[in-house]
Model the fold of this input.
Amino acid sequence: MMLALRFLPYLALALACWWLVDLVQDRTQLQGELAAAQIEITTARIAQEQALESARVHRVYLARAADQARQWDVLFNDLQSMEGRDAPLSPLLRAAAERLWP
Done:
């Protein structure tokens, strides 16, 4: 029993050293995990920015396509309404046109 009491301060010192080493290792591990998480967050932010830019470009493309479709509809309706307008001129109008534009 006396022998155990004699080594008790050394045992307490060893336990304290073990606890400090474990604490330092935990801190090092947590710092590594924090660095990895920060890298993941940065990567996710970059991916988000790229996705937002892609969505913006896509919206512009869709708006342009819709505008072109509207223009095509107007042109198509104009062409449809012109049907029959290319009928031959009456002889009176033809004679007047030939005098104006020989």
Q: What stands out?
A: The longest helix spans residues 8-81. Residues 31-66 form one domain. The mean pLDDT is 89. The radius of gyration is 43 Å.
